[in-house]
Amino acid sequence: MKSSCRVFMHVRRGSLLALSLMLVSQVMLAAETGTQLQRVDPEADRLALQQYYLKRFPHVPMDEYVNGIYAVDADSRKQWDALMAFPPYEFDLEEGEALFNTPFANGKGYGDCFENGGIGIRHQYPYWNREEGTVKTLEQEINECRVENGEAPLPWKRGDIAKISAYMAFTSRGKRFAIQIPEDDPRALQAYLDGKKFFYSKRGQLNLSCANCHLQGSRILIRADLPGPALGHPTHFPVFRSKWGEIGTLHRRYEGCHRDTRSVPLPPQSDAFRKLEYFQTYMSNGLPVNGPGARK
Amino acid sequence: MKRKMLVPAVVTLLHAQGLYAASFEQVFNEQRALYGKGHEFSYGGKIHTTFHPEEIEAMAEPNAANARALIDGAEALRVESAAVGYEWRGPAIYIRQAREALAAGRYQSAMELAARAKYLARMSLKQYRNAEANWQRAVPE
Amino acid sequence: MRRLRSTLWAMMASCAFCGPVTAVTQEEMIRLGRDIYHDKSRGNCISCHNISDPVTNLPGNQGPMMIAMKQRYPDRRKLRAQVWDATAANPLSIMPPVGKHWILSEDEIDAVVEYIYQY
To answer: Which residues form the signal peptide (chain A) (predicted)?
Structure first.
């Protein structure tokens, strides 16, 4: 346990009682928060996150959190409503549908790779794949479908993959996220725990965690930007982001955020990012799919 | 009275947990935070300065061998932090610039850049260890 | 700029034991601190801390406003230490450890402290 700094602050001030109390309380804290595989309780985590926001923004209904910052900030909402009169992702959606329905050279199509022909399944992603022992994302399976049918995989961040994913999300709108963590496979719970740990860990020269901006910092100005709440974060992806001027995937956003901490960012669809998506989407269980979305 | 009894116990405990070395770091950081670099302070009956070890390395004679040693040291720590997924952007940039300076015979500059890279890489590893131990404190209950 | 800064610092250092710093030098320090404070690619302090300076543009409010600094930090060094590493006092703080992570140099931190200590 490396709580050396705090230990010494207390010792140097001669407050030895405080030291012993602190050591005890630290152990108790770790037991409560589920930092170990034996104790982590995703459902308790999810409810605690909802409670956090219920306290923070008491008048915002849970389902509204799929709208990110626009759920909790009236001024931003007004601008966004104006933008959404003509959603900027409309053309991407059309293209995505066309791409989705265009057969591969071998005559097969995306619909052949997915349950229910790929329609209305977004709310089940990402999921724990027992056979492969890893978290699988929708984009990952879109590319696997291509490769299995003799097509080249698409780049992860923008373009066709985002459009196809957008169309698949659109056919799932209103369905509520139902991410499962199979209890009989402890590796799934470990993946969730790893994602949770990623979310709360400070990174980069700027020493920022996801939580710094999107939990404690939500709806507090960083220059002219208001970070959105962590709850409901992944529900609207892929997203047409005005800053990008185009549609992009969740992992493109992860990479950008990670880089903004002055880290060397991990690549899209890396193991760590997929686990982060698993954790974040589980946190959004019960919220409806509303992708694709539009954000500033 | 109570205090007298507890001190040896605590010192033993801290020894056992390998925390004794960290106490110097704590004092060092405090002093550097208050006074900047080059400030003298006493710890453990000795006089120290608030120069980072890397800054002291960069004060060695500016020559190719010393520059190379600093660059290699920085690169080793950078690789270590990348392996645990905590690499910062700075070190690779400064290492590249240090190599350019070395190639151009600007040894002093090469050593300063490499020292900065090495310090940042060391901090990134410290951040990793700190996150491993303390990340749970940020989770809402 | 860098040369100017080191010259200033040489001047300040040579004068460290000979009474207060000259007015011109302090003005230069404040000007440098102000540049750093408001510059996105340097300190970018303004992204989180509002300050009542005419050049302030789109201030954030993740952190407290720079006001009543002398009352809040009667000992200016404590303010310096807080800028150097805010996580020493609060490990969860969103504020980047400006000195500890070498985001600004020690000289730049001194200049920023000089600038904000007026408010």
So the answer is: 1-30
